[in-house]
Design goal:
Blueprint: E1 8-10, E2 17-26, E3 38-39, E4 42-52, E5 55-69, E6 76-91, H1 96-105, E7 108-111, E8 117-119, H2 121-130, H3 158-162, H4 169-172, H5 179-182
Parallel strand pairs: 6-7
Antiparallel strand pairs: 1-8, 2-4, 3-5, 4-5, 5-6
């Protein structure tokens, strides 16, 4: 099994069929950085590996917490992030074309038959980064800010937008004649 302090997957320790293991990694080790968020130290990953001889199909769920400022009320906010990743590791000889194709795909890794460990840290890091929200907090189920309770839906701003500026009221009084009356 993989060591809990690293993101190394020891291929020979996995039995044929379904394997499940958990990892706890430090966000610093994964080099998780963002200009808008800070990452809590601990990143958890649960990985299911289905082994069939020298083929390993991984499905992982990664979770961590991020902190930042609420974009509405500017109070400190915290949010859980859950991301998923998939990876297929094949331990076999491969042609240069196969290796290039696998590298372009990004979710297939072909390794030499003598390879004993695979580092899945980059896949965990990429999954988290791709699932980061645009801003904190994201609306809850009702569409309200979890920090200040303000309605974040676009319909809440509709009433404000429909109010007309009194400076434009004079334009509303202009009457236009139809084209039929002018002929």
């Amino acid at each position: 099994m993989a060591d809990s302090s690293y993101a190394l997957l020891t291929l020979d320790d996995l039995e044929e069929g379904q394997n499940v293991f958990s990892l706890e990694l430090h966000s610093e080790d994964l080099e998780l950085k963002d200009e808008f968020f800070t990452f809590h130290s601990l990143v958890k990953a649960e990985v299911k590996v289905r082994r069939s001889m020298d083929n390993f199909n991984l499905e992982g769920v990664v979770s961590c917490k991020i902190a930042g400022d609420c974009y509405r009320c500017l109070k400190a906010a915290e949010q859980a992030v859950e991301a998923r990743f998939h990876l297929s590791v094949q331990r076999r000889q491969a042609s240069p074309e196969e290796l290039e194709s696998a590298e372009e795909d990004g979710y297939i890794e072909i390794v030499d038959p003598g390879t004993r460990q695979v580092d899945i840290g980059e896949y965990i890091r990429e999954a988290i980064i791709l699932d980061l929200p645009m801003r904190l907090p994201t609306a809850n189920v009702e569409g309200n800010c979890p920090q200040c309770g303000e309605d974040l839906t676009e319909d809440s701003n509709k009433d404000k937008q429909e109010e007309t500026d009194p400076r434009w009221a004079a334009l509303g009084k202009i009457e236009f004649s139809s084209s039929e009356e002018s002929t």
